[in-house]
Amino acid sequence: MSVVSDTIDWLADSAHWSGDDGVPHRLVQHLGYTCLTVAIAAAIAIPIGLWIGHTGRLRGLAVVSSGALRALPTLGVLTYASLFTGIGIKAAIFTLVLLAIPPLLAGAYSGLESVDRRTIDAARAMGMTELQILTKAEIPLGLPIIIGGLRSATLQVVATATVAAYIPGPGGLGRYLIDGLATNDYPQVVAGSIVVIALALALDGIFVLLQRLALRNRPVTVRTAA
Amino acid sequence: MRWVQDNTDKIGDLLLSHLWLSIVPIVLGFAIALPIGWFASRHPRAKGLLLSIAGVLYTIPSLAFFLILPGIIGTGFLSPLNVVVALTVYAVAIMVRSATDAFESVSPAVLDAATAAGFAPAGRAFLVELPLAGPVLLAGLRVVAVSTVSLVSVGALIGVNNLGSLFTEGYRTDNDAEILTGVVAIVAIALLLDALIVLAGRILLPWNRGARTRSRHPASPSVSFVQRLRGART
């Protein structure tokens, strides 16, 4: 069990907690990539998902295309893209955005679909415009599921950003794993893995809280209906 | 195309190991998750705990999981067993949720009727509950199959040979045809396994043929939604 004690020693070494190769810097980098790619993917996928959910149009196409995107192996897309973009972060960002789109899209349209038709009919009967129905009824009621899509996308990006470190250029926590593998530095590999897992669990926990909050802040009508 | 023609033997070998590394976790994951899901559907208190554990396990990034397993189960760092065990854990994590939904989808009235008709508990579980839960179980299994096939390729990073090796090698040698071959082959295997599962479902659950249209109906998003969200993993 020397791996365990070596890992503890690695994590306890203060040299690994400062500078550009230190855990805090790479953690912030990793979070930065994650936020950037999820934000880009959300800017693309959520408006489309809301439109599909609100109008019910092109739903079949969305299901099929997000399913097809999912069968794509991420490592393959990453290495293929990097042959064209060269060393650097572009290929990683492109791959991560592609990966984050399906869950965001599915969360947005499923969130709106989960809203009771009668509630929407009632909102329309009260004279709300389509935009008001969307922003005041559908989005608030579907929010827990929309956040669920965001949660799923974020976790996938956190996980895949480690794989993306295979391409020189992106820093982030994946460097500990890929560099450690290349140099047979197992304590570094295991310590890096532990930090990534801790980050994933912490982000997941935050999203669970957000989902609960969204559920609690839904309009009163749902609570009585449910 | 030239590259594919020149390397058919290598592609064939990698294809076989990729299939092997995918099918074992899919089958094991399904077999392990089935009784857990059945138990969870019976015991609401245990259900919360079991689904939370599944959710936490599913959160672990795959590359980190592959690398941390040797320390936990005592395998070598390069052992394919790390990949198989990690993917089985993911398969169980997805499938427990689907199996719980599946067994909960069986109407209690049907179960009462089966008991009244003289089914013993074990017979009822196998001859009544399992077939009726079949359609939802099948939908979960399809998600597990596609995500497992795609995830195996990450194993190439830790030196476990499979079609993902075409990505790492193609990247090193600047060979885009090799990488593209790997992508196409993996997508093809995923679609093939998915089609086989659908076919098996048609044969084993002939009464389910009309049911697909119902699941597309906007009024019943819950189960299909969870499965869509849980669709991919890296």
Structure in words:
- The complex is a heterodimer of chains A (226) and B (234).
- Chain A has ten helices and no strands.
- Chain A has helices at residues 2-12, 23-55, 59-71, 74-85, 90-113, 117-125, 130-164, 174-182, 186-216, 220-225.
- The model of chain A is unreliable at 222-226 (pLDDT under 50).
- Chain B has 234 residues and is mostly helical.
- Chain B is 79% helix and 0% strand.
- In chain B, helix 3 (44-59) runs antiparallel to helix 5 (80-104).
- Chain B is elongated and about 65 Å long.
- At the A-B interface, helix 1, helix 3, helix 4, helix 5 and helix 7 of A face helix 3, helix 4, helix 7, helix 8 and helix 9 of B.
- Chain B: It is a multi-pass membrane protein.
- Chain B: It is found in: Cell membrane; Membrane.
- Chain B: It comes from Aeromicrobium wangtongii.
- Chain B: This is ABC transporter permease.
- Chain B: The chain crosses the membrane at residues 20-41, 48-73, 79-96, 136-159, 179-205.
Content-based structural category of chain B: mainly alpha
Question: From the helix content, strand content and strand pairing of chain A, which structural class follows?
Answer: mainly alpha
Number of β-strand runs of chain B: 0
**Major sheet description of chain A:** none
Q: So what's the oligomer here?
A: heterodimer
Radius of gyration of chain A: 21 Å
What average pLDDT do the residues of chain A reach? 85
How many helical stretches of chain B?
11
Q: Helix-strand pattern of chain B, N to C?
A: HHHHHHHHHHH
